[in-house]
Design brief:
heterodimer; A: alpha/beta; Alpha-Beta Plaits; six-stranded mixed beta sheet; four-stranded antiparallel beta sheet; 14 strands; 32% helix; elongated; B: mainly alpha
Chain lengths: 316, 271
């Protein structure tokens, strides 16, 4: 793996959000793609943006990159407005991996990176290292038309990593990657986060990002419905918890009766297991009741609502 | 404006055409056609072999006026809309490059490929014919080559403009073909028709200026007015006043035909 030299952070701006969005809206005639979005992403943060297809994620990405003009509001990236003349300098600090990245079939992997390196003002000598980093060193001289979808995605990621960017925008970055490549991808992101790189990513695979992002925003119908850590969003929406209790089969009925008086939502028994659903504020009461069951409990597992549950809770 | 960014885009466009042998193929087409015309152009009159540079150029003008606009339009019609349709435009625009730099880089790269093909194709023929030519004839031939390059660049500029207006490649190709029909086939017929309908009594003064509204006609006039022997062979161009037929003036008109569509394309692309 290639070593990474972190770019020294601007200490005067260390506490200012790297991405600052205020009342951003984008309308296409009667279609309101993005409506009144307010959002801050802090330096060194790995921020997730989730939503249904058509929720406005990709449009918001394009607005953040200055690819399309805002209808209203303001977006600042590293202090510069995306519509301003100073944004060209900021672009040199940005890495972008579009959804379904399309590269040039007639170029080899290395030539592809050379092309983008020239545009970014990055020395060509960085390109082999970038390919090495995403596991494409052996395919450097093969034409992109011979690459699989996953290889193209990795090449797109290598392109985004050129020039040691301080801000990364990754739109569905793990699309087409196999589980091993996804693991390697997030390992690289963790390393970048440790070096202070700010990252915004979208994903449809909620289970994949729920343990990996620092904070996330849920978008629906062009609006941000909720922002926070996964845990904060769980608490905010107050979805029920699940207790999976394993017992000796003979104790199941007695235990079900013993837990029946608690403020729970549902209780179900299957063979040697009891599943209890309760509100978050009844969690400690249930735990204390289970503790009083003495030696009857063989195993206990508390299930928090998944990010998918939280997502549907907000977006529906 | 950063010239390095323009050069990067232009370099990629040019080398893409070199690598996929587009330049070679077009240069070969020009060479073969030019040689055939030079040696067999008089076959209908019962003579085979090189006759004179005037008649060779006159025949080549008739060929080039159809061929180069078509090649240029095909070359450039998807310059921008193709990137948009493939999905690679957003990635390009996320780089530290302005839309104008991207557009100009695309245009210059494609123009370089077309120019290289034209000069290589016709230049090879010049080498073959050189032993038979006097210096003045070579001068005419190089003038023909230069005007062919300008004609190609003018229609390439129109093609790039089309590529910024069209919403997809299919529409862009339709618009490019329509432009070719209009400028190469229909425009002169419309002018002739107008002259015939009015019995030549109206519009005679503006007629030369109307010819300048078509880069294909400007190319034709640029070439045939340089040669007394062939001037009378052409219908429309013979009514063109000598004062307006100055090569430098017609060259400026050609440059305007390159710049104006590019300016419109830039406006549209920024929008």
């Amino acid at each position: 793996m290639e070593s990474f030299t972190p770019v020294p952070a601007d200490t005067t701006a260390a506490t200012a959000p790297v991405v600052s969005i205020r009342a951003a809206s984008k309308y296409y005639g009667p279609v309101h793609a993005v409506v009144g979005v307010d959002l801050d992403v802090n330096r060194g943060e790995l921020f997730g943006l989730i939503g249904h297809n058509g929720a406005g994620k990709s449009t918001l990405f394009k607005l953040m990159l200055g690819l399309i003009p805002l209808t209203a509001g303001e977006i600042r990236i590293d202090g510069a407005t995306v519509a301003g003349s100073g944004f060209r300098a900021v672009r040199r600090k940005i890495g972008y991996l579009p959804e379904n990245v399309v590269l040039y079939d007639n170029l080899t992997g290395l030539e592809t990176l050379h092309f983008f390196a020239r545009l970014k003002g990055v020395p060509a000598r960085e390109c082999p290292a970038a390919l090495e980093r995403v596991g494409l060193a052996d395919a450097a001289t093969r034409r992109v038309r011979e690459y699989s979808k996953g290889m193209r995605q990795r090449l797109g990621f290598a392109q985004a990593l050129l020039g040691q960017p301080q801000i990364l925008f990754l739109d569905e970055p793990t699309s087409g990657l196999d589980p091993e490549a996804i693991r390697d991808f997030y390992a690289i992101l963790r390393g970048l986060r440790d070096q202070g790189v700010t990252m915004v990513l979208t994903s449809h695979i909620l289970a994949e990002i729920q343990e990996r992002v620092d904070r996330l925003a849920i978008m629906s119908a062009g609006r941000i419905q909720a922002i926070g850590t996964v845990q904060a969003l769980r608490e905010q929406i107050d979805l029920p918890l699940w207790f999976d209790i394993r017992l000796a089969a003979a104790d199941v009925d007695r235990v079900r009766d013993a837990l029946g008086h608690l403020p729970i939502i549902a209780i179900e028994a299957h063979n040697d297991r009891i599943t209890v659903q309760c509100r978050r504020d009844a969690k400690m009461q249930v735990l204390e009741a289970v503790a009083r069951l003495d030696g009857k409990v063989l195993d206990l597992h508390v299930r928090e609502p998944s990010l998918e549950d939280v997502f549907f809770g907000f977006s529906d | 404006m950063e010239f390095k960014q323009i050069a990067t885009i232009a370099g990629k466009e040019f080398w893409d055409r070199i690598r996929n042998r587009w330049v070679l193929a077009v240069a070969l087409v020009f060479t073969v056609f030019a040689l055939v015309i030079a040696y067999f152009g008089g076959a209908q009159q019962g003579a085979v072999g090189f006759r004179s540079i005037e008649f060779t150029i006159a025949s080549l003008v008739s060929l080039v006026i159809y061929l180069i606009p078509l090649i240029a339009l095909i070359l450039g019609f998807d310059a921008i809309v193709g990137e948009r349709e493939r999905g690679s435009l957003d990635l390009l625009l996320s780089m530290p490059i302005t839309r104008f730099e991207l557009l100009l880089g695309k245009y210059l790269g494609l123009a370089a490929a077309l120019t290289f093909s034209t000069v290589a194709g016709f230049g090879l023929v010049a080498l073959v014919l050189a032993p038979n030519l006097e210096l003045k004839a070579l001068y005419h031939y190089f003038g023909f080559m230069l005007s062919s390059v300008l004609l190609g660049m003018a229609f390439l500029s129109l093609a790039v403009m089309v590529s910024t207006f069209a919403t997809d490649r299919t529409r862009a190709s339709g618009m490019a073909i329509a432009l070719w029909f209009f400028f190469v086939l229909v425009f002169d017929l419309l002018l002739l028709g107008a002259l015939v309908v009015t019995g030549g009594s109206y519009g005679g003064e503006i007629f030369p200026y109307l010819l300048m509204a078509n880069p294909a006609d400007v190319f034709r006039i640029l070439n045939i007015f340089a040669m007394d022997d062939v001037r009378t062979l052409y219908g429309l161009a013979t009514v063109f006043p000598r004062a307006l037929a100055e090569p430098w003036l017609l060259g400026l008109v050609m440059l305007a035909w390159i710049a104006a569509p590019l300016a419109i394309a830039t406006w549209r692309f920024r929008k």
